[in-house]
Specification:
- This protein is α+β, with helices and mostly antiparallel strands and 402 residues long.
- The chain folds into two domains: 181 residues, RlpA-like domain (Barwin-like endoglucanases, Beta Barrel); 138 residues, Barwin-like endoglucanases (Ribosomal Protein L25, Chain P, Beta Barrel).
- The protein contains eleven helices and 17 strands.
- The strands form four sheets. The chain has a six-stranded mixed β-barrel with strand order 6-16-13-15-14-17, surrounded by four helices.
- A hairpin with a 2-residue loop joins strand 3 and strand 4.
- Helix 4 packs antiparallel against helix 5.
- It is globular, with a radius of gyration of 26 Å.
């Protein structure tokens, strides 16, 4: 090879290397600036300043992180006026008004625990005024937004991303007496127990509550009983078709740990596919892992038989698609809220956000902090399906009177 050809080859290789390096750097810059998981952005938003990107990325490592989870890494550009406009265009449905009227009953019993937004401490009278104004708006057909002030929940990331999950009321087949199939007890609260209440492992595997006349009924599926505990209530169905509501009667005060999170951390299930159906399928394939996984959650729930529809912590019937479970340190029971709820399509993929009024009527052991609410979906298999796949993000605002 002559010297001219050699020089040409060297120049060509250097140029190729430089171009490749430039493309790699550009790709890295693109990833650092706009990750793939941020492509569901809304046109009404402004980008976080560049010096906040690293902080935003760190904040996103918590929760359910996958493409299309509805989460935003940018601060909303819409102000109080634009949100109030969206509020005015949000329909006030009759089902919502039914639930709204239950709020007054909640406020008779539930304390407003000095929840504070900025420099404003929420008072019970604030919540009553909002209920009255919505009732008047439903009758007149006109919601006067000039009478309201909205306070956004910051979420865990201070960007307003609130994790929406769903819950439902399961129906479980039971027997009044234990047999070889229906052998897993559903317990009342052990009110005479002295000292710290036992853990899930001690109750289920070691049987420390057996023989204390606490058994309400017996189920045949441990996972279904566990699901009822997580949901906070359930309907049991006896052999003769008789049904009875089991309401939440208390917990053992051990910390709640999500088995879905455990399965994800162990790489048994992906973040995007996690759902109650997927968890059920996993245990059908690997039944020998059921006790191990369930015992990762030491929390245990007790029940009380009731002759009523499913009720929440406010001791009133829950309204499907409008009742939410909240952390009372951040949202008081009896509050009315404006929500941007993540909506899933027929393939259970995130589609869009929907404006809706919702009602704080329940609590839950897994609902902690300003970044998580649980949306009630109703009773039975259809409600289970809707609840199972919802682990996406939206926003939410407390509605207060001016």
């Amino acid at each position: 090879m002559d010297s001219t050809m050699t020089r040409f080859l060297i120049i060509f290789l250097c140029a190729t290397f430089a171009l490749t390096l430039y493309k790699c750097n550009s790709a890295v810059l693109e990833i650092e600036t706009i990750p793939d998981s941020f492509k569901t952005l809304n046109q009404t938003m402004q980008l976080i300043p560049s010096d906040s990107i690293d902080q935003a990325r760190d904040q996103l490592v918590t929760g359910y992180e996958f493409d299309g989870n509805g989460k935003k890494i940018i601060k909303p550009s819409h102000d109080q006026i634009s949100i109030l406009d969206s509020m005015q265009n949000t329909p006030i449905e009759s089902s919502f008004v039914y639930g709204l009227r239950q709020q007054l009953t909640i406020l008779e019993y539930a304390k407003v625990n000095d929840v504070q937004f900025d420099d404003r401490v929420i008072q019970e009278e604030d919540l009553r005024k909002v209920i009255k104004m919505f009732e008047e708006a439903y009758v007149s057909g006109q919601l006067n937004i000039d009478n309201f002030e909205l306070k956004a929940l910051t979420g865990k990331d201070d960007l307003g991303n609130v994790h929406y999950t769903g819950y439902f009321t399961p129906i479980i087949s039971v027997r009044k007496d234990k047999d070889t199939i229906y052998k897993y007890p559903i317990y009342r609260y052990p009110s005479n127990w002295e000292g710290d209440l036992p853990s899930r492992r001690e109750i289920v595997q070691e049987g420390v509550l057996e023989g204390k006349n606490l058994e309400i009924a017996y189920g045949k599926d441990q996972l279904k009983i566990y699901t009822m505990q997580v949901q906070g209530s359930g309907i049991i169905e006896y052999k003769d078709g008789e049904r009875q509501l089991l309401a939440f009667a208390g917990g053992n005060k051990h910390p709640y740990r999500s088995i879905g999170r455990y399965l994800i951390d162990k790489s048994y299930i992906s973040k995007k596919s996690v759902s109650l159906d997927r968890i059920t399928e996993f245990f059908e394939t690997y039944p020998h892992l059921l006790d191990e996984v369930l015992n990762e959650n030491p929390s245990f729930v007790f029940f009380s038989p009731k002759d009523s529809d499913p009720i929440g912590a406010g001791n009133i019937p829950l309204t499907p698609f409008y009742s939410i479970a909240v952390d009372r340190k951040y949202i008081p029971l009896g509050a009315t809220l404006l929500a941007q709820i993540p909506i899933l399509d027929e393939s259970n993929e995130f589609s869009h956000h929907e404006w809706r009024f919702v009602l704080a009527q329940d609590v839950g052991g897994a609902i902690k902090g300003p970044g998580h609410v649980d949306l009630y979906m109703g009773i039975g298999p259809d409600a289970k399906k809707k609840a199972s796949f919802l682990h996406h993000y939206g926003q939410i605002w407390m509605i207060l009177p001016k």
